[in-house]
Amino acid sequence: MTASRDQFCSWTAEKIRNADTDRFGHVNNSVVSTYLEAGRTEIMDDALSACPNGRDDYNVLIASLSINFRSELHFPGWVQIGSTVICIGNSSLRMAQAVFADGRLVADCEGTCVLTNAKTGRPTRVPEPVRAFLLRPASMPRPILNPTGR
To answer: What predicted TM-score, i.e. pTM, was given to this entire model?
Structure first.
């Protein structure tokens, strides 16, 4: 099953750089994982801001990531990264993400993140305000922060 734009509640835009391409002229697969990281970082940063000192008290670690590459991507342009949380456990959460360019699905993925205590490095329970933020419906999206609107 492939991703559709309407399933995501958080959006991040990234500019495709010439340096992102490989010798075959398309964006390297490893760069696509970097785009996905930008999306994960943004949604988690927003979620942690729901807690006092959230950004200082917690870290987010990626425990697993499975990416499906759906189409080639070329320079120049912009990508939009959609992110949404599927479920939250005690200290972990499962996230679905996708990368789109010009309305076309480039890649989709599912990953598991673990919330840790920034001081001890140990897994810690996901706070209630973070849970509430992350489990908001996709019908309450955060806008794409891209001045070009692409």
So the answer is: 0.88
